[in-house]
Amino acid sequence: MIKSELYPLKLRPALHVKVWGGRRLANMMGKRLPTAMPYGESWELHDTALIANGPLRGATLGDLARDYGADLLGAGVDPAAGIPLLAKFIDASDWLSIQVHPNDEQAGALERELRGKTEAWVILHAEPGARLVIGLQPGTTREQMAEAIKRNQLEARLVYADVCTGDVLYIPANTIHALGPGLLIYEIQQASDVTYRLYDWGRLGLDGQPRELHIEKGVQVAELASLPRVRQPQNELLVDGEYFRTWRHELDGKALNIETEGCFQALTCIAGTVHVASAENDSIRLNKGETGLIPACLSAFVMRGSGSILRSCQG
């Protein structure tokens, strides 16, 4: 690839059909869903995301990570490991499986993967009565957990949490969790897809077969001593975690200046339209449901418009 100066990048999403998906990605986020199948995820920021604007159009973020290294990702990030964060929209029209993710050390030992998976959910839309699973009842042992899964009785040990629009849940690796029906969320996470499915509600996949469970590894990594807490943040900073931070910016026509501080910035528009320009006057427009990335080498950028932006960067 011929190198070009980096500039604000607009990203093309990757849509994923899921047995528990629906049509909210089209109806609420403006995504063009190519078939009538149930779409559950729109991957916005990831290694294989295609650049949609400028001289680097058609390249992937993974390509740029290898070619530009710290200029794209920031100092201290291994470009050979790709983009360290993954962001997506999730439309849950049915329960997702009960699942758990390993931490970094466990992912290396069990899967030879570089990263585990800590994540966070920002609830963009919640229908009345929407719920999450946030763990198992306190006092449950690993032996009891494994036996409940094998007997299809795990539901009796689940802890649920009611949620509404605007709620945020930070989910450290090892947390047992699941999204319930009636939810549209933004998920920011470590760039890992290592998932141990513990229970799938007796459901069949789109191929008509039961989906694989990962009981032994899931029980091994599960945190049983504590439960995460659903919060309704009262300021811009929604998540301040070990691996990432996420803010929500409400724009009302005034300019908002942001310094990158040497870190790449992922920007996802969740309402309205926002124009994003670097100090060099390169710019992109993000409509509702669209995502862009500001490379780490750009010292600052300004956002203008009327809408809402979720901004995420490495912690």
- Number of helical runs? 6
Distance between the termini: 30 Å
- Which geometry do the CA atoms define? globular
Q: Rounded to an integer, what's the Rg over CA atoms?
A: 20 Å
| Low-confidence region ranges | none
Main sheet properties: 9 strands, antiparallel
- Would you report the number of β strands? 20
Beta-strand percentage range: 35-45%
Mean pLDDT: 95
Helical content class: 10-25%
Secondary-structure element pattern, one letter each: EEHEEHHEEHEEHEEEEEHEEEEEEE
Structural class, please? mainly beta
Please explain how this structure is put together.
Helix 5 runs antiparallel to helix 6 (215-221). The protein is built from 6 helices and 20 strands. 42% of the residues are buried. Strands 1, 4, 14, 15, 16, 17, 18, 19 and 20 form a 9-stranded antiparallel β-sheet that branches. Strands 2-3-5-12-7-10 form a 6-stranded antiparallel β-sheet, with no helix packed on it. The chain has a 3-stranded antiparallel β-sheet with strand order 9-8-11, with no helix packed on it. The protein is mostly beta strands. The longest helix is centred in the middle third of the chain and has 9 residues, at 142-150.
